[in-house]
Design goal:
The complex is a heterodimer.
Chain A (H helix, E strand, L loop, with lengths): L1 H25 L5 E4 L5 E8 L2 E7 L2 E6 L9 E7 L3 E2 L3 H6 L13 E13 L2 E10 L2 E14 L2 E11 L16 E15 L4
Chain B lengths: L8 H26 L4 H30 L11 H31 L5 E2 L3 E2 L8 H35 L15
Antiparallel strand pairs in B: 1-2
The chains are: A alpha+beta, B mainly alpha.
Chain lengths: 197, 180
């Protein structure tokens, strides 16, 4: 009887770490850093005469390194091709190229570089970084939800920026009773874990 | 019940409210379309949409009044063919007074611009965003508007002809102030 118990205890003590290792294998370690460019989405909504108008960017180059075990070490860099904008209509698309809006000739790209990521619990994080548009750099903070699915992770979030802080829509367009200052930006990025070496 | 000599007061009021709005929306629509994109243009487009939706709203009392209040008979001196043309014109005018703003609303939805009435009340999108459908509805809106323009012209010309040339009571029935 006693020896049987001893045997059982020995077995359990043997199996438990193995079970732990098994779970560990199902959720492998490593950083998500292989961005899937085709899945990138940068959407925005702005209001003109209180009418919500949806737009998006077709080309965004994202580099990121996210280790679920060390989220504070996350780094994100976004280079956004502003010329790939769809601002909701053909008229708007040709308008936003010009100086009062994005001044694409001088500033073809917007960038975002993360400076800190802090866990909010669960799969939610808060990311702060420097957003540069039209030569103006501002700190922005955005919540990010990370959805892990095996070796792929999706990063979703959104924040509100004030377009006039970046001089987007200068001059006559700065009348916020026509085009509101607030622009809601949302993003979706997917990345895979580095292939096992 | 005998046909009265006048349109009822509600009929006169709602006729002229719609008339004024249509006479503002028509030139505004043509004018704003030709403007290059500017804050002013966005403002005028919004006003144009608000006027159009107001016309749609006013059409409800218009129809109720038309169906519940007796309409004056055409003046006795009017030949049969004129009566026929007048009633066809009125039916088509009614159809266009609904069709023009409705096609504009649908076009706005298809182009991805919801209508927010008076900047306060978001109206439902009648169709989803669809560039090709938007272009089609733009053509429809323009075509119907051309039709409305022609019929409004005909309607005004006929009213003036009755008043100035025939010197009959046709126009007076809708403009009591003109009573001779």
């Amino acid at each position: 009887m006693n020896s049987k118990r001893l045997l059982a205890a020995a077995l359990v003590s043997l199996i438990l770490p193995l079970a732990g290792a098994g779970a560990y294998a199902a959720q492998p370690a490593g950083s998500f850093d292989q961005v899937l460019p085709a899945k990138n989405r940068i959407d925005f909504v702005f209001k003109q005469m209180n009418v919500p108008v949806k737009g998006h960017f077709k080309k965004a180059n994202v580099n990121l390194v996210f280790d679920p075990a060390a989220p504070a070490k996350t780094t994100v860099r976004l280079d956004l091709d502003l010329g790939s904008i769809d601002a909701g209509s053909a008229d708007a698309n040709s308008e936003v190229v010009g100086k009062p809006w994005f001044d694409l000739k001088t500033f073809p790209t917007a960038t975002f570089v993360s400076s800190s990521v802090k866990p909010l619990g669960g799969d939610r994080y808060e990311m702060t970084g420097k957003l540069t548009i039209k030569g103006k750099t501002r700190d922005v903070t955005t919540p990010v939800t990370v959805t892990q699915n095996g070796n792929t992770a999706a990063f979703d979030g959104g924040f509100t920026l004030n377009r006039l802080e970046f001089a987007i829509g200068d001059g006559t367009w700065s009348d916020t009773s026509i085009v509101a200052d607030e622009v809601k930006v949302s993003f979706h990025v997917e990345a895979e874990r580095r292939a096992a070496k | 019940m005998n046909a009265p000599g006048q349109y009822s007061k509600p009929a006169v009021i709602v006729h002229w409210m719609i008339a004024i709005l249509v006479l503002v929306a028509l030139p505004l629509g043509y004018y704003m379309t030709d403007l290059s994109l500017s804050p002013r243009k966005l403002q005028l487009i919004s006003w144009h949409k608000w006027i159009g939706f107001t016309v749609l709203l006013l059409f409800i009392p218009r129809l109720i009044v038309r169906l519940t209040r007796p309409v004056p008979a055409p003046v006795d001196t009017m030949p049969g063919w004129q009566r026929a043309v007048a009633s066809i014109t009125h039916v088509v005018l009614y159809a266009l007074i609904i069709g023009v703003p409705l096609s504009g609303w649908m076009m706005s939805s298809a182009k991805g611009f919801p209508v927010v009435y008076l900047g306060l009340v978001p109206l439902p999108d009648l169709v989803g965003k669809d560039e090709a459908l938007g272009d089609l509805l733009k053509s429809a809106h323009e075509l119907l508007t051309s039709g409305l323009l022609i019929l409004v012209g005909l309607h005004i010309a006929a009213a003036l002809k009755h008043h100035i040339i025939d010197r009959d009571e046709t126009l007076v029935r809708m403009v009591p102030l003109l009573k001779r």
